[in-house]
User: What shape does this take?
Amino acid sequence: MACSKLQEIDQDVVRPDKTGVDLLHDPALNKGTAFTMEERRNLGLLGLLPPRIFSPEEQVLRTLTNVRKKATDLEKYIAMIALLDRNETLFYRIVIDNIEEMMPIIYTPVVGQACKQYGHIYRRSRGLYISRSDKGRIQQVLRNWPNKDVRVIVVTDGERILGLGDLGVSGMGIPVGKLSLYTACAGIDPSQTLPITLDVGTNNEAFLKDPLYMGTQERRLKGAEYDALVDEFVCAVQDVFPKALIQFEDFANHNAFRLLEKYRNNVCTFNDDIQGTASVVLAGLFSSTRLTKTPLRDMKILFCGAGEAAIGIGDLTVTAMMAEGLSQAEARKRCWFMDSKALVESSRQDLQEHKKPYAHQHQPIGDLLSAVKVLKPTAIIGVSGVPSQFTKEIVEEMARNNKRPLVFALSNPTANAECTAKDAYTWSGGRAIFASGSPFDPVTLDGKRYVSGQGNNAYIFPGVGLGVVACGARRVTDEMFSEAAKALAEMVTDEDLATGCLFPPLTKIRDASVRIAVKVAEVAYARGFASEPRPKDMAAHMRAAQYQPVYKKYI
Ligand code: NAI
Assistant: This one.
């Protein structure tokens, strides 16, 4: 039972609807050793806890000390999720106050390792699973969820988890991780979030044979049957949680683009891999203009990869270039794509629909180095999921052609990055403006310290979610994502840029989320998508509604 369901006595004093062991076992209500003597007496807790009462600060110290002692990052992840299962308030206190340390543990890159081994490290169920056998009763499954005021759902079918491919239901770590960031970064109440995995089978050969795999050990559902299941899910959400935003996450690109097109104009939904990625990368491009003095409209971008992330970034960049005066055709001509086969160009007969707008007339080019030599881009953006694609020759060629070449190695997790921060700075003589998908440590080269930025979607989606929830938006539009990109870029200081970083520090992420949320809500009000009355001071209204990881006083 969530705090929001408790009978409010005054602002911070509440009467929990549980006592004794049940109270200790409810992570939303539990305070562990921080229950006061009065609470222990009143709520049937005497004898159930060690006698000494600890302050929240002491609890933080004990937990952080223990987590930091763990030998591996995966063990740290397991310890943090175990904490979330025991004491939600303490978990969020620690994550919010130590966001730079904790985000890579509870989300990328470590969540990737956790997903790969989900069935093996499993402790306790979290989130909701909807299986193909639930067809015809998905509403009933949704109604089993204990919290009724769900506002943000993150759903995956596990087919393309990070850059790791088909992990089936083991992908549940992703919705769980993303929603914990909605709370930590934007202050969405955890009781209003719901992680969901659609168990539509898996084509992962290892998982099909793994005795500990936790999903249906059948091949993936396809075609009309798959579409019908997703459709029933989306309709059931409208009935059971009518105010919920549905974020599609880590679907393979053959479904992601289709589903986005199918639902974006009639349901409150977005796809973070396409639109969220696009927004954070666009923010990086906006910030880079202050270093290169090259406006967005004059950039030429070569993408390595032509999937969800790449096309999403391309589409939003085109919209932003059009806002700077280019026609759509001119803007598209500034975006070029390499896929797994070759340059995307008009003579190719094998192109999927989402690539066709970028199939410009050009001679075929088979490899990235040749493409960099011929096209002379100002930016290369790696989003293929294939590691080490930005070789020394490629970065050197970029540095030959540009005073400040943009090198974005966005593939996740860290092992899949196109090159490291150190490589980019070394090979370009310190001139590259580098950003990555997973974090890299600062690099010192010839006495200068470089702090590369992480183009982390977590800068964007929590703020978008907060904006949508606050104004009751009925749709999520591309305009919201480009406004979000602008708001994020505006937060980057000259000091951030001087070290080479295109994004504000993660420590400012709660502030960034509110600024983004305000912009998102403004778009919703301007376009008639908002359903809540407009508050006088939107930012203050949002800040006041944010979840705070502070124990309430129980009577
Ligand atoms: P996707 O599966 O939709 O697309 C992958 C694309 O890469 C496909 O177009 C494929 O043809 C192409 N590709 C494969 N091998 C290639 C090669 N050798 N050379 C050139 N292209 C090749 O995957 P999605 O969603 O676009 O993600 C790709 C990568 O981007 C993943 O590693 C993911 O983790 C990362 N990503 C990073 C984000 C960030 O930093 N904020 C956000 C979203 C994704």
Q: What stands out?
A: The chain has 24 helices and 16 strands.
